[in-house]
Model the fold of this input.
Amino acid sequence: MRINAITQVVPIADSSQVRITIDAERRMTLEGSLDDERIRNVLVDAVKSYSNAGIRRDSLDALRAVGNHPSVRDALLYAVQQDPNPGVRLEALKSVSKMEWTPHVQDAVVHALEPGNNPGLRVAALDVLVNHADASSLPVLEHLAANDSNSYVRMKSLSAVRKLE
Done:
C-alpha cells in the first residue's frame, strides 16, 4: 500500500491501541494495536520521513507505549538526532529519557547537546544526561563545563562533574 498522506494519529487512552487516518489510493483508517507490525511500521515511517511535524509528533506520542521495541527505539533515537523540528526532537528526547541507558541512547542524548541545536533542547538533553551520568559521561560533562557558550549548561555540567568526582 502506498501512503500519500497521514491526516491524523490518535492514541487511544489507557491502551496500546491507536487510530491512524491515511490517504492511500483512497482514504482509509487503520485501527489496531501497537503490537501489530503494520500499525507500528506506519508510525515508525511517519516519525522518520513524514513532512508534517505535527503528525511526526503525534506518531511519537503513540509509539511511546512500545518504546522498547527495536524498530520503535531506533525511530525515537533517529528523531532525537535528526528531526528538523526542535519540538519533535524534544518530545522524542522525553521518550528516550525513559529507555534503558545504553551507549546508543547516550550517544543520541549527547548529539542533542551540540551547540547548533535549539537551547531548550540542549538544556533538556543535559538534564537527561545528568540524570543518567556515570563515569562514561564525565568527559562530555567536563567539556561542556569548560567550553559551552550557554552559562546554564556550563553551570549544570560543572555541578554534575563535581558529583561524579
User: Anything to note?
Assistant: The chain has a mean pLDDT of 91. The beta strands are 5-11, 17-23, 27-33. The first helix runs from residue 37 to 49. The helical segments are 37-49, 53-63, 70-82, 86-96, 103-112, 119-131, 138-147, 151-164.
